[in-house]
């Protein structure tokens, strides 16, 4: 991570997450992306702008939502969320070889902040297990070596699940 960002380990440890987006060559992915972009441009002529944007939040609406949840929600960790975060932190401490600079008490605090932020985003007063897992996925995605995520070589080439609550 410090190679891609040219930041030292101690400085990197001050950030909750750092996402390095590498645009690596992948023929299958490039085909998917180019097909999507071309089809989007082809559809612009067929669909009116109002139909295309129906149901989407404007930037102003999103800002207001974030401002509201920031001011009115102080999510509290549930026992389940505490257990998930604690287990992950302990796993990282046991396997801290390459990421020793990041596996500090700051990492634990980062996980808590990220889980609380996810709970706020989801309009909840309690941090659930899903919020804790989402925080861990964010942290894992920001690391060059992942302790629990498999087959994630490049965050740009990953996708969102259709139903995260079931997973």
Question: Can you describe this structure?
Answer:
The chain is an all-alpha fold. The chain has a domain at 57-157: Helicase, Ruva Protein, domain 3. It has 8 helices and 2 strands. It has a two-stranded parallel ribbon with strand order 1-2. The longest helix has 18 residues, at 27-44. It is globular, with a radius of gyration of 19 Å. One of its GO terms (molecular function) is ATP binding. One of its GO terms (biological process) is double-strand break repair via homologous recombination. Its EC number is 3.6.4.12. It holds the Pfam family MCM_lid. Keywords: ATP-binding, DNA-binding, Nucleotide-binding.
- Examine the coordinates and then state which fold CATH places here, giving the name of the CATH topology of the domain at 57-157: Helicase, Ruva Protein, domain 3
Identify the CATH architecture of the domain at 57-157: Orthogonal Bundle
| Order of strands in the sheet with most strands | 1-2
Number of strands: 2
What's the helical proportion of residues? Answer: 40-55%
Q: Radius of gyration over alpha carbons? A: 19 Å
> Structural class from helices and strands?
mainly alpha
Order of helices and strands: HHHHHEHHEH
* Proportion of strand residues: under 5%
Which parts are unreliable, with pLDDT below 50 for 5 consecutive residues or more? none
Cα separation of the termini: 29 Å
Overall pLDDT, averaged?
Answer: 80
> Which CATH class of the domain at 57-157?
Mainly Alpha
Shape: globular
């Amino acid at each position: 991570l410090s190679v891609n960002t040219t930041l030292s380990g101690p400085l990197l440890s001050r950030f909750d997450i750092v996402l390095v987006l590498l645009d690596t060559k992948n023929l299958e992915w490039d085909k998917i992306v180019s097909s999507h972009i071309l089809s989007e441009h082809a559809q612009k002529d067929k669909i009116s702008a109002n139909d295309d944007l129906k149901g989407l939040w404007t930037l102003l609406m999103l800002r207001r939502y974030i401002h509201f949840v920031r001011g009115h929600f102080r999510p509290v960790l549930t026992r389940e969320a505490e257990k998930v975060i604690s287990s992950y932190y302990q796993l990282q401490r046991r396997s801290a070889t390459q990421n020793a600079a990041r596996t500090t008490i700051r990492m634990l605090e980062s996980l808590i902040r990220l889980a609380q932020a996810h709970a706020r985003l989801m309009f909840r007063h309690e941090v659930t297990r899903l919020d804790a897992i989402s925080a861990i996925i964010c942290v894992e995605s920001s690391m060059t070596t992942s302790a629990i995520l498999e087959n994630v070589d490049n965050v740009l080439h990953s996708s969102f699940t259709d139903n995260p609550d079931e997973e």
